[in-house]
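Expect sequence, tokenised fold; for instance:
***
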Amino acid sequence: MASEKRPLAARYWRRPIERISTLSDLSRRDLLRTSAAAGVGAVVVAGLTAADTPDIADASAPGSVAAGHPSKSPGSPPATLTGHIVRPGDASYTDARLGWDQLFSHYPLVIVFAQETQDVVNALTWARQNNIALRVRSGRHALEGWSNLDNGIVVDVSQLKSVQIDPGARIATVGAGLNQLEAVTTLAKQNFAVTTGSEGSVSLCGATLGGGLGPLNRWLGMACDSLMAAEVVVPSGHDCAEVINADLQHHSDLLWALRGAGNGNFGIVTQLTYKVYPLEHLAYVQATWDGLGDLYGIFEAWQRTVPSADSRLGSELEIHKSQILLSAWLADGAAAQATEMLAPILSVGRPDVTVQVGNWGDFFAVAQVPLAQEPANWKFFSEFVKERFPKKAIDIIGDFMRNAPTEESNYFVDAFGGAITREPPGGTAFAHRDALFYGEIGAAWGTRSTQPGVDDPLTSQAQAWTAEFSQALRPYADGAYVNVPNVGMQEWQTAYWGSQGFERLRRIKAKYDPHNVFQYEQSIPPSH
């Protein structure tokens, strides 16, 4: 770094696009341990009587469901919950139930931390047999709290951490519990990369299944574009579950759906296979402007420069109450190349600029912000933009940001173009390849607590600010991002996937989840 003090662009480099909850420190041995170390930590849940539910026992208990081999009878044998089980009354229940965004607080009946795929099969079967609502969780960062629920079962795959890299084939297969920091740093040690968001504690699986955008997307496309295959637990028969593998040769329709619409809609993803790309180094540029006086010049230069630049250049602009932050990354580039490409932006005003060249994993790790330093409550609104913002739209951003509820609140944009415009073989459900950039409003406030609630004095102000800000920018937006869902949007289905895409997703839903087991506030319903 240029100095011992971390640049503000790094401190605030939270990128709300793809986030999850707590980041646990892992040794290399822990990270590379396969997720098949199974059955560890299986316990019996007391307090759920036999009259209410089946017993919850270990994976070897009689009646457990065989992965991939559902019963041919009208129903499966009574299932048992396996894995690490947490229930109300357990000492770890509060930590286990809380998500990253403490604006939302739910009390599930039971939380299953899967240790292997079989635990997921058992949990899905158990939920179906007992008619109990189910939610799927990978990183606890569902931005409206939809990966949790009251009185239901939460299937958490965050402990399915495994990594297998084939350098010759340029293929990486990872467990669904891997977060973005683990993925980026592990791949970077072998000079490989895939697209991820910028926030390390976000689930790589969750980010990918919604599309996945971030620093390398103009170079490598969306994260979902690199997804080659997935292991998925899906409903089977009347009350069973089975494991299937989706790739271009098998269940290719499901692979298409998982590439942009896969979060909690069709099944539970337990493993993902990616195409990875060589990346030995990149140039990393950070620029900071004090105040918002140069906002129009910076934003105008940014939207005219980066989306049409060399596809190796990715860039994000983050506007705060009293500061503007630019981050840019040039894959396989030199410092002089990067600053030359960004010259139209960097020539506006008098920014504080730092340029570094090095390993992507090292830059990514240094830029992470500890969870304890982040606000407790967040509210977001997403939009895709196809035409350059006129001065009126940029003025709206400036007006709202000057009146933001906190300094951490922000308006954030990520440049599109480049490789994003090209779909991978087999296509994807992601529908915004013609966007100029992605935009996001984020309100942040409050202090983290073990007893979260919505009674923070800033909650009403922050919620109103987000609603009014988003409404003011609606005339300039075209579409929304499913990973950052917009509550209250009437046409959310077409905003996320387009009308034809949504109808295709409904048909795929009817094939793989005809009974609509996987449902939440904005889930895809099966076609009839």
